C-alpha cells in the first residue's frame, strides 16, 4: 500500500475494485465501513459480484470479467473531458499525459459500456465522484492482478490516481491489499527471481558486487531467474530437475492443476519444508518439518509495509525446527557455512544490506511496528509514500489499450467462472481446515450461481453440479445467491478435494506472469 | 477577546483539555480512575450504565463522565460521597440479577448453596463463573465493597445459546451494558446484533432474535472481547482457560496481510485462546474469525514432527542428519550435473522476513541461481 490502513478513514472517497474486502481482509474492511457509516466517506465499488461491500457503496459498477482497463480508461476520459483532473499534480509530478490523452480519447462512456456492460451514466457519475474527492483512496486486490492484463490493470489504477492528484496525500493512494501474512516481506526480502532484498536488481552490477562482498562469495548469477509460473512448465519438459519448496502448496494454489501435478512428478528431486504433509509434500522425496508462526521469533511485513514482531509462544512439535535453521544447515552441508545466533542477528544483516530496512531493528519495533522505507536508526518510518517525488522522479502515465481476457465463453462453455476466497477459510485450507468451528461454518465447496442461471440450467439450491472447463472438471454444491450476476459463477479455491484450480486457465500476464484465475469459461451439468 | 482558557478542575487539581474532550477522557489522560462499564473506546458513548457518574459543581444531578463534555472552569469530584453511593446502588442492582456466582454476589448464608446449585445446572459446570477474576463487575463490586443482597434476585428470562462453534451467549450474566452492540455496529460494522424488546425483557438479539449462526454474524468475536462480564465467552476456552494459569504473548497474526496484533494465551505449552491487542495499530484490538478462532492448526495432531524420506513410494521417518545430508547431497549433485539453473526454490509468504532472507541468500549464494519465487502471484 502507498498509504496506511488507518489512512482509509481519512479518505473522502474510497474506490474498491477486485477486492472482496469483508471476506478476505475483514479487519481492514471495518476501516472502510466506519469511514462510510460514521465519517461521511463515499464508496465506489467496481466488482463483478454483488459482494457485501455493495451494501455500503454509493455506486456499484458491475463490469464484465476482465474489462478493467476499459472502465478505468473510461473514467479518465470523463475526468479529462470535463476538466476535473488535478492540473497542478499532472504538470509538476508526472510525464506522459499527452500520450495518455490520445489513447483515452476513444474510451467514451458509450464505447466503454459496449465492452464492460457498465451503463454510461453510472460510469460518468463514478468518475465525477472520484475526481471530486479531496482525498480519494483506491483499494484493490487479486481481482485486479489475476488477469493476463494484471500489470495493465494496476498501471491503469495508478494513472487514475495520478490524474486526480491522489498520491502522496493522507487518505489517498493506490493500495493493494496483500492476501498473505508476509507476502510483502517475502518480496521485500528478495524472494523474487529478479531482485535481492530491498528490490535491488540482480542485473545491477553494483548491487551484485555489494551482495557478493556482504556474503563473501563470487560469481552471483546476473540474469533474472524463473518465476513460479515458469518453473512448472520447465519441470514438465524436464529442464528443471529439482525444487526446494518452503511453506507453499502449489498443488492446490496453481492454475490448471492437472498439468501442475504432472510437471512436479517429472522432477528428479523434490524437497518440501512445511508444517503439514500438504498435497505438495506428499509428492516429495524428502519432507522437512518446520515450526509455525506461534513457535518462533521473527518479523512479518504487513500490507502497509509495517515491519512487526513475531514471537515464540509455544514449543514446536516433535523435532520440527525454525525454517531458517533448516535452510542454514543445508547451506552448511553444501560447503557454505551459514549460522546465526538468533533471528535478531539475521535482521542485523538484513538492515546492513537492505536500504529500506536500514533503520529497523528488534529494539525499535518492540511495542509497535515501523513502516519501511526506514533509512536510518532514528528515522520514524514512512507511512505515506511519494509525498514529494516518486522514486524515479516524475510519475509516468502509461497509455494502455484494452485487451480482452484470454478465454471467452462460447456454445460449449457458456458461463464465466471467477474464483476467490471465503471468510472462514484461508488459501489452500491447510491451516483453517484443522479448526472444527471453521469447518462447521464452511464445510465444503460450492458454486455460487444467480437465481436466473439456476432456473435456466434447472438447478435447485444444494444440488450437486459438475463444473467443467477445457482443462478439467470438479463437482460442487449449487448455492443460489443474489451475489452472483447472470452469466458468471463463482467458486472458492480452498477445497483441495474439489479444486477450483482444476478449471482455471494458466494463461499468464506477460510481465508479472500471474495466471488469469479470475476469468475462464465453464459449463455446468448435473453431477452423476 | 481573550483566548479561551480550556481548564477543568478534577478532585482539586486543574487540567488543560482539548475542545472535543469529555470529563472521562481528561481524567483518563491524567491517570484519574473513573470506573466504566458500558463505555467502549472508538464508539459514541451511550451513558447507559451510569457507573461513571461524577459530581459536577452546580449541576442538579450526577453526570456520566463518558458523555459529558469537559467545560471551562468546571469543578468535578470523581469519588465524593454521593458518587460512591450512586455507584454502589448500580452495582448492587446489577449483581442481584443473573447468575453472578462469584461469591461476591453475597447472600444471607441460607440460599447461597441453592443459588450456586441452580447456576451450576444452567452452566453445566461445577465451577464458579467462567470469567471469575477477569470480570469488570466483580472488580467494581470488590472496589466498592457491595454485594447483591440488597435486592431480590430477578428471574432469568432467556436460556443460554450455544448453537454455534465459537461463542457462548449466556444471557443470565448479561448486564445489558450494550458494549457488544457497539462493538458489532460501530467498530466492526457487521450490524448483526442489537438491543431488542423493552424494559425488564430487554435482550441483546441477532436478526429478530435468532441464534447468531442464522444472523449476519461473521464470528469476528469483537463482542466477546468487549463484554465486561461473563455473558459472551469463547466456547472452546470456557471453563478451560483461567487467566491466572495462562501467559499472554503478543505477536502478529499469520493469516492475511493486515498483520493484526494479537495475544496468544498459552496454557501448558498450548495456545488456548486468542485476543486482539487493544490500542495498537494496525487493528486496535479487532480481529476476524480466522485470527481469533482459527488457531487449532498449531496444536493439530497432523503437524509434521520428524523429517521424512520417501523410499519405494512411501515415507519413513528419518533423523535430521540423514535428511539434511540427503538434501544437500542431491542438490549438490544436480547442480554439478545439470547446472545451477536446473534447480528452483519456492520461498514462502507464510514464513518470516528473516527466513525469506536466508532462503534467497541460500538460493543465490549457494545454489548460484536466481530461480526463486513464492506465491505472491497465486
Characterization of this structure:
The complex is a heterodimer of chains A (528) and B (378). With 528 residues, chain A is α/β, with parallel strands linked by helices. Chain A has 3 domains: 6-177, 3-Layer(aba) Sandwich (Dimethylsulfoxide Reductase, domain 2), CATH 3.40.228.10; 183-371, Rossmann fold, CATH 3.40.50; 415-526, Beta Barrel (Barwin-like endoglucanases). Chain A has helices at residues 21-24, 26-38, 68-81, 87-93, 97-104, 109-116, 120-131, 142-145, 150-163, 183-188, 205-215, 228-236, 250-253, 257-265, 323-333, 343-353, 436-441, 451-457; strands at residues 13-17, 42-46, 59-61, 94-95, 136-140, 174-176, 195-196, 200-201, 242-246, 269-274, 286-289, 298-301, 306-310, 370-371, 395-396, 415-420, 446-449, 464-468, 473-480, 488-492, 520-526. Chain A has a 6-stranded mixed sheet with strand order 17-19-18-21-16-20. In chain A, strands 3-2-1-5-6 form a 5-stranded parallel sheet. In chain A, strands 9-10-11 form a 3-stranded parallel sheet, with no helix packed on it. In chain A, α3 (68-81) packs parallel to α9 (150-163) and α6 crosses α7 (120-131). The mean pLDDT of chain A is 96. Chain B has 378 residues and is an alpha+beta fold. In chain B, α2 packs across α4. Chain B folds into 4 domains: 7-79, Ubiquitin-like (UB roll) (Roll), CATH 3.10.20; 101-299, Alpha-Beta Plaits (2-Layer Sandwich); 304-333, no CATH class; 339-378, no CATH class. The model of chain B has no long low-confidence stretch (mean pLDDT 93). Chains A and B meet through α2, α10, α12, β9 and β10 of A and β10, β11, α7, β13 and α8 of B. β9 of chain A pairs parallel with β15 (343-346) of chain B, so a sheet runs across the interface.
